Every structure is written in structure tokens, then in C-alpha cells.
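comment on this one:
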Amino acid sequence: MNSPMEESHDMPVTAFFPLAGLHKYVAIFVIVLSWILVHRWSLRNQKGPKSWPVIGATLEQLRNYYRMHDWLVEYLSKYRTVTVDMPFTSYTYIADPVNVEHVLKTNFNNYPKGEVYRSYMDVLLGDGIFNADGELWRKQRKTASFEFASKNLRDFSTIVFREYSLKLSSILSQACKTGKVVDMQELFMRMTLDSICKVGFGVEIGTLSPDLPENSFAQAFDAANIIVTLRFIDPLWRLKKLLRVGSEALLEQSIKLVDEFTYSVIRRRKAEIVQARASGKQEKIKHDILSRFIELGEAGVDNDNGGGISLFGDDKGLRDVVLNFVIAGRDTTATTLSWFTYMAMTHPPVAEKLRRELAAFESDRAREEGISLIPFFSDSDGPENQSSFAARVAQFAALLTYDGLGKLTYLHACVTETLRLYPAVPQDPKGVAEDDVLPDGTKVKAGGMVTYVPYSMGRMEYNWGPDAGCFRPERWIGEDGGFRNASPFKFTAFQAGPRICLGKDSAYLQMKMALAILFRFYRFEILEGHPVKYRMMTILSMAHGLKVRVSRAPALV
């Protein structure tokens, strides 16, 4: 038993234990706070959102994820170059054409797609042209460039694009008769999917049939596209992939459906080619992209007969090649068509000027060819007029040859102005191979990412003047009335430099074919209260579609 003196001596020791513990926590707090303050001080001159230790700017980016493109506009209009730190890397966003030219052309080899981008997109794009670097990319680029310059492919594409534009017109004509509300984005997605599968695979998948059937390939492709985009800001996606849960589980299922369709088409096409050769009917081998790449893979040489193309020699290589063209030719085109229609609806003088260009083109071409135009009445839905209307649309479509479409300058300007404000690919990241300094003095570190931002670039007054945010197709018309191009490092909708889009002419061909028919013969009115905003994915699609009422346009001539 302790004496009173001992008890008195023990009390302060016990009392000081909590205080000692408190000192420990205070010390930890001071150290952490000092670390944060030093980190913030080191980034005092950084242009962009606030960055914190470990998490970087993740919180602000997540908070603005569903408006990320406009979030970047706010920063880039002020700074031109913005750095956004993330847990495992950093993104440098650029909107100044001088910096863009440096990345896409001048120091091209230092800015590949990179391993980070490849890891995100590999499950969908594989070793295809949009996900490849180095020699693998160069071989595909060289071969694809040769194929896209082919007159056979161009003529085949023109026929296919006209065919499906007329199918879409037929659906809209029926909607006029019944007063049914239609989702133009869905219809454009169906039209471009059918078209690109015909041009790319040589198959008819029929999503634009009058009853608009569901298509598992299209649904799976859309789901996969959305999920791989989410990977760019989801630090847990690798864990979810490992555990096969959440979005990564859905991605796995979606890719399985996409692959089942693609591989079945490849096997069938190979069998058709073998059969055509065996029967001595070589001329029956189709002109689609898949058939051409199968033949190139079998030949084992490139278009200069200088080296093997092992990529095209197996089904996996063909799968990657064709899926890359599908995503390029389907989603991007449908998205631009949707935004074009929205811009035309919200800018009636533009739509009217376009309609008059199309009517004048039709009249001039008919006179040149000695054709009598079939009369129709815009406000009549009787059986006789229905028939004459369909015949008149088909008559007009026949005038829309490759060369004929090239004469529609205002239409071309309207499409280009749409792409300036609503580029199909709103931002495009590149890896950084070695440390570099951009022309404006911004330092970028190896292993990071540099992203040029077409969506922001089209809205920058320092690129386009005080009316940068306005939809004004006339900015693309020269004093002589011809189309006036802009630097591809300022108008970046089709990228620039060595990776400039090979399908640019094909995309314009399909878009102008469809839009010439639709805006010559139809008017569109957006459904009251329908929200129009973009959805965050690699392509700038509309989050809620584009629901409209359709009516016939005045005959004019």
C-alpha cells in the first residue's frame, strides 16, 4: 500500500499522459499542415485548379465532371495553358495554336498516345490506328492512307451514304404523316452505324429499318465507349477490373458482345472471299474496308511491297483495325449531324439560307442534265403526293454525286462551323515521352499527359475573335464566295500534323449527303422543354438525345 506522499507523487504523472498524447497529435497536425502549405506554395505559379497532396485536383475535377469541357473553357480562356494534377499523373491542357502545333507536328515523336492512354483504351481499340504508336501506327497509317485514296472506296461509300440517307428520309416522311416525335440523334446513330458497317464490314445490320429494331452490338459499343472514358478520372478502375465489379464488369460484358459480332463477320467474310476465288469470280469480292485488309493480310506486304503487315494477318488484328474505323466513322459523324440539326433549329436564318442554296443547286443541276423535276406539295399527305414526294427526294439524291456535293459551299461552311463549336472529339490526350518545354514556356514532365482541346479552342476569342462563341457559318466564306480554310492547328476537329484524320473527306461526304436531303425537304422543331447538353464520353454526344417534330419544308421550286 502506497503512502500519502507516494500517492501525491503519482497524480501528476497520470494527469500528464493525456497532455502528452495531445502534444503528439498537435505535432502530427502541424507536420501535415506544413506539408500542405509547402505543396501549395510550390504550385503558387501553376495555372489551373487547386492541387492538393496525393489527390491533386481530383475533387474539383469530379465536381465538374459532367461539365468538364465548359470547366476547361473557363480556365483556358484565362490562361491558354492549364495544368491539372491527378493522383497518378498530370494533365496539361492546351488551346493556343502555337502549343498545339508543337505537340502535333514540331515535336511529334515526343507526344505519342502513350502507355497511360493505351491502358485506358486497349480493351476497346486494341492495336488499331487510334491506339497505336511507333512502327505499328506507321504501317497502319500508310496502308489506310492508300486505301482511303482509292476511287473504288470513294464511289462505294457515295452509293452507301446515299442509300441510307434515303432510308432516313423515308422514316422522317412517315413521322411527318403521323406527327410522331423522333430522336434525331438516335436516328443518326442508326444511319451511321448501318453505313459504316456496310462500308467497313460489307454487311447490312438493319438498325435503320422502319421498325427501328434494337441491336445488341450498337448497345454494347455505346456502353464500352462510355466506360472507357470514365477510366480517365476513376482511380479505382483497375481495382474494379481485377474484382470484376461495377462499371468494369459491364465493360467486360459489352466487349464480349462487340467481339462476338466482329469476329463472326470476319470469319464469314473470309469464307466468302475463299468461295469467290474458288469459283473464279474475283470481281464479286466486296469493296469494303474489311475485305481490303483481309487481302492485304493474306498478301503479307504493304502497298509499296516493302514489308510484312502481320497486324492484318490474324482475326485479332482485323478486329482492331475495323473497330477503330467503326468508332471513327459512326459516332463522330452521328454526333456532328445531331449538333448541326440543333444549330440549324436554333438559327432559323442559317437554315433558310441553306435551304435556298440546296433548292438552287437542285434547279441548276436538273437544268444541266435536262431533267424535269417531279412536283410535290409540302402541305399534303395524300397517297398520290406521298408517292411524288418520295420520288422527288430520290430524284434530288441522285444529283448528289461526289463532285456535286463539292459545289455546296454554304453547306460545307455550316458543317465546319458546327465542328468548330461542337467537335466530335472534344479533347485528345497525348503522352509525354521526355521532359519538354512548350513554346509558351510551360514545362511538361515525362510520363505526364498533354491534351489539346478542340471544344475549348473553338470558343477562344484569342483564336477566333470576339464572336468566337457565335454560330456564324459565314466566317468560312471568302470574299470570292468560295470556302476559306483555317489552320488545322487552330481548327483541330480533325487533328493535325502526321496524325491528321484520314477519314475527313469521307466524313464530309456522308454528312453533306444526309444534310442536303434532310434540309432540302424537312423542317425540324425541337420538342418543348427538351434538354440539350453533352454527355461525358470520348465523343461529344447529346446526353438526352435530340427529340424533335418533323414537317415538310416548302417546295421552293
